[in-house]
Amino acid sequence: MASHLPVTEGLDPFQLDIPNDNDKSVSDTIQELQKVQLSHQWDPNLPQERIDAINEAVKTGDQEKAAELEKALAQESQYESVRAAVRNTDGGEVANTVRAWVLGMFFTTLGSGLNMFLSMRSPAISFPAIVVQLLVYPMGCLWAKTMPTRNFNTFGVEWTLNTGPFTIKEHAVITIMANVSIGYAYCTDALLALKAKPLYNMELGWGFQLLFALSSQVVGMSLAGIFRRFLVWPAAMMWPSQFANTSLFYALHDWSSSDESETHGWSISRYRYFLYVTLGAFVWYWIPGVLWQGLSVFAFVTWIRPNNVVLNQLFGGFTGLSLIPITFDWTYVSAYLGDPLLAPVHALVNTFIGLVVFVIITTIGISYSGALYSAYLPINTSSTYDNTQNAYNVTKILGSGFSFDEEKYKAYSPMFLAPTFALNYGLSFAALTAAIVHVILFHRKQIWHQFRASREQEPDIHLTMMKKYKEAPD
């Protein structure tokens, strides 16, 4: 069975090797607080009252207040969302086990294969790491109950198939393995285009495809390791999408009832609450998924005049702009937005404004002005067309060695794109340039400071606890 208690026991912040305030001079304490002040001066997530308290302590040189703030910084996260989802204790459970490696490799292989296959579906169905996190829990518990606990010795290394209860850290290791590689590699999009019969129809061979995928993935892994001191270690680097995983870990491994004083009277355990929500979601999906599929894309406005072209262009759910985007099917939401429940409100508002200004208004302007030959094209489609309104045949513009042949292109046809598809490409290229310019204009000082301070991060409870483990080299 799984371990349910150690997640709240073990190493706590009061057992950590935190410097004694009495051993510090006034200047040392204020200096440490100044580092925190400098690191968080651009932090939009730190509560304003905390920022004001730090600024006041530094300005007045109040030793007692500075020591109190520094101690608080070292013993708990300063972010409410982090405190709610990630505990500041370390139970010291076993993590590097045969069980973790076997289950991790199995689910990584299964998940990445399924994601590659399901990516061809419309709407695409993803197999996220949180599904692995759910499925591996009963398998880990079953392994703990059935596998032998005998110890083996191989070349001087002692190991066992069963170290005891399935721990939260083993669970985390498996989920991390899946999270890193469960999504299909971006290079497969290029491989699909090269191999697709309507496009290039090239036979590349499995060797090239394997090396192409491995090389691109290894580059990404290397960059992730190099930049972890900038994107993982600082306390201000919050990744809200991971809070669902951490909360689920505690829900599955900690079956204790909630403290009513901290949950506004709720006494139900995380595990029981999770089971109720899961059961409800399972039952509900049969309605939009099977019984009434019209709930998946609830374009009720088009029911008024089904044959009206303009009405369908503006409010249609598949080939229109869906100006009233209502859906009762969560797969349609998560297929394109990931999990919007975990994103900060300001990020969602920013996305919505960009959608309205740069996509909806612009698309309407292009379509009803006749620009880009839009009068002859659907308003919203990812298909490409030639000058006869048929699907564009790429092979007609290719020369020897699958290179672009300008003469064949002129003899055949230009490529015509629907307004939304043309904007998709244009805005994608514009966003790359805009992101670089925006960062230089508004965040250059913050990035330069983080680069210089990367070797000496400000005190943070989770970074402090991680330091007791051996760090991977850069």
UniProtKB/TrEMBL annotation:
Taxonomically, the superkingdom here is Eukaryota
Q: Which organism is it from?
A: Penicillium freii
Q: How does it sit in the membrane?
A: Multi-pass membrane protein
Region ranges (Disordered): 1-23
Q: Where is the protein localized?
A: Membrane
Give the main location.
Answer: membrane
The record's annotation in Pfam families points to: OPT (PF03169)
- Please identify the protein, giving its name as recorded: OPT family small oligopeptide transporter
Q: Which family does it belong to?
A: Belongs to the oligopeptide OPT transporter family.
Extract the GO molecular function terms from the UniProt entry: oligopeptide transmembrane transporter activity
| Biological process, per Gene Ontology | protein transport
Which residues are listed as membrane-spanning? 98-118, 125-145, 172-194, 206-227, 273-295, 315-335, 347-368, 422-442
Cellular component, GO, one term: membrane
**The entry's keywords:** Membrane, Peptide transport, Protein transport, Transmembrane, Transmembrane helix, Transport
